[in-house]
Amino acid sequence: MIDYKNILTTCPYCGTGCALHLQVLDGALVGVLPAKGHPISEGGLCIKGWNAHAFVNHKDRLRTPLIRKDDKFVEATWDEALTLVANKLTAVKSESGADSIGFLTSAKCTNEENYLLQKLARAVIGTNNIDHCARL
Amino acid sequence: MTDRLISLHEAIEQVLPLVEGVLAIKRGPGGISAPYLFSSEHPEELDLLVMWPKEPVPDTLRTIQHAHADSKLAIVCRGCEERGIVEMFKHSQLKWDNITLIGLQCTQEEAEFCRCAKPYTVHAKTTVGDPIQGVPDTLTDKIAAMSLEEKRAFWMEEFQHCIKCYGCRNICPQCFCNVCTLEDEKWVETGRLPMPNPSMYHMIRAMHMTAKCVACRECEETCPAGIPMAVQFRLIARDVQEMFAYETGAKLDQKPPQLLVLEEGEYERTGLPH
Q1: How many domains does chain A have?
Q2: Which residue in A44, A5, A21 sits closest to B48, CA to CA?
Q3: Fewer Cβ atoms within 10 Å of its own Cβ: the N or the C terminal residue of chain A?
Q4: How many CB pairs under 8 A join A and B?
């Protein structure tokens, strides 16, 4: 059975929020189509959106987190990486206080992801130092 | 459901058991539609069938047929899309015998939106809707009537807005070369915006659309800068018609001018410089 469909999603490249269709043929991502009738992108895309499928299965894409050990990046699991970050943040906070830590998020992320990061900053760490790349 | 949509629904239902899939347009989240391959295993999905906006389905058909070389597929196509399929076949991009065409004739409103001269299919054996006459392309006529200086100023201004998204090339049913001149640094410099004017990008595309453009206007529709580039292709098409008596997508057995070898003495007839 031949399976061809399009999955509507938001372009991951910037904060504009253009919609695009990911073309899926037999379960594999094969291309992008613009989304006609979408209120933001109105059927258009920029060159990044048109190529938004290219990185998904790219050979250079990182597939695991990397942890720097002796000036070299070493592949790690998500558990290892997150535990390391949590331990370091806890250590910095207890040594220098919560306001010694800042969080930078991204206009490329969704509203929900940005909300979650400020929640982590304010409610877990206890600082208002939260900003994003569009103001840098 | 309109009568036209009901008729299309019925036409697809009849073809569905005979093929591995029918390529048409399906409504998705938020009412945004996209091409979809309907299969006889899920006929209930036809409840989400839509007709407008039109989509670049000939290219999708090509993608599917390349992965499934011997598959028997059907496609709901409008006049322009049928022409796109015919030209793709002539350039060895599709297997004609493996395709069942379900022709969808455009409405007056749709034809006017596309400034379409031939809003109807001619090859499809199954058709839906009544064919209507073509509508005049007043924009193309207006630009054709301009003086050389006015034309130059008009296109210079239009091309100035290009953001080089390559969308017009990507969406075009007739752009399928493995190696694209538009990706050659010699002709189109990467990272340079606005493009040098006159724009080589647009000149190359105009030349490459000669005797290929099927007037589907997908390029104009996807252009974030709103450049009416189909006008150029339509003006070139008028010349091609005059010189070679060639109409894209019309006759299956007429060779495109690019594939013609002119015999001695024939140059004069074509009016080409020799």
Answers
A1: 3
A2: A5
A3: C
A4: 89
